[in-house]
Amino acid sequence: MRNVAAFLLSVLFLTSCAVDTRSISKDHFAVAHVASEYKVVYPVERIVTLPSGDYRSIMENDSGIFFVAPSRLVMDSMGLFDGGVFVPFDKSRPMFWINIPGGGIFVRDILPQDFKLALNQ
């Protein structure tokens, strides 16, 4: 729980510096559920593992909503990172995002078609 609180504080700090993020609107989804662990494999033998479970909405921007993972994302050769899933408002494919300590939040690659995500209010 302490890690989640520290992470949310860092997100609040980062978002206070960014003009294009804001608190979640009440009419947007609150939870995104990922039924099973998902691995994103890159050609350079890098694997990012997104854990299963409920991802909570933490912020949004003009393009979509950021959902934080229930535990840290695993990047095989780089370690553990805070992050989650970014769901665009335009209904295009979700992407994953990571928080690089000292570097900020980065939205990464579009998740493949077989990535399953259920959005709930």
Short recap of the structure:
The chain is mainly beta. The chain contains one helix and eleven strands. Strands 1, 2, 3, 4, 5, 6, 7, 8, 9, 10 and 11 form an eleven-stranded antiparallel sheet that branches.
List the helices and strands and how they pair.
Blueprint: H1 2-17, E1 21-22, E2 31-34, E3 38-41, E4 47-50, E5 53-61, E6 64-68, E7 73-75, E8 79-88, E9 95-100, E10 104-110, E11 118-120
Antiparallel strand pairs: 1-5, 2-5, 2-11, 3-4, 4-7, 5-6, 6-8, 7-8, 8-9, 9-10
Overview of this structure, please?
The protein is mainly beta. The chain has one domain (2-120). The chain is 13% helix and 47% strand. It is built from one helix and eleven strands; from the N terminus they run αβββββββββββ. The chain has one helix at 2-17; strands at 21-22, 31-34, 38-41, 47-50, 53-61, 64-68, 73-75, 79-88, 95-100, 104-110, 118-120. Strands 1, 2, 3, 4, 5, 6, 7, 8, 9, 10 and 11 form an eleven-stranded antiparallel sheet that branches. A hairpin with a 2-residue loop joins strand 5 (53-61) and strand 6 (64-68). It is globular. The model is unreliable at 1-19 (pLDDT under 50).
